[in-house]
Write a structure and sequence with these properties.
The chain has 4 helices and 5 strands. By secondary structure, the protein is an alpha+beta fold. It has a single domain (2-131), classed as Dynein light chain 2a, cytoplasmic (Beta-Lactamase), CATH 3.30.450.30. Strands 2-1-5-4-3 form a 5-stranded antiparallel beta sheet, sandwiched between helices. Strand 3 (84-88) and strand 4 form a beta hairpin. Helix 1 runs antiparallel to helix 4 (117-131) and helix 2 (43-58) runs parallel beside helix 3.
Length: 134
């Protein structure tokens, strides 16, 4: 599995336009499994990325919203409702995508906020689908 994680990280960095950083987060452990970046970040920042990803997808309020949506729609499975989250900061765009094969794995791509959002979504989705057996 480690080789697959490395492949996803590398493919995101190479195929997503203007990608500055990519990574894969294991939601079950809250750990950053692998990453590539054009910048040098302290380990504390990288560790916080994994925790923030966990909060985005499976924080208490998010899970409550998912359960409410499922209840209202009559859905009884345990799948998570949110599959992708796009976050824009003042200078960066962060895309978080759950793996198609393992909902506890999330791929992350970070680009300048000048990135074409359509190209970001299309290329990251393609990579996660194609290489995302993680």
């Amino acid at each position: 599995m480690h080789d697959q994680v490395i492949s996803v990280v590398k493919q995101l960095r190479h195929e997503v336009p203007d990608c500055l950083a990519s990574g894969v987060v294991d939601m079950a452990t809250g750990m950053l499994l692998a990453y590539e970046t054009t910048d040098n970040h302290p380990q504390e920042v990288l560790d916080l990325l994994a925790g923030a990803t966990l909060d985005l997808f499976q924080g208490r309020t998010v899970v409550m919203i998912e359960n409410l949506f499922k209840e209202r729609r009559g859905v009884s499975n345990n799948e998570h409702y949110f599959q992708e989250i796009l976050v824009n900061s003042s200078h960066l765009t962060h895309l978080f995508i759950r793996s198609n094969h393992n909902e506890d794995t999330v791929a992350v791509a970070v680009c300048p906020n000048s990135v074409n959002i359509g190209m970001l979504l299309a290329s990251a989705r393609r990579v996660v689908k194609e290489y995302g057996a993680i």
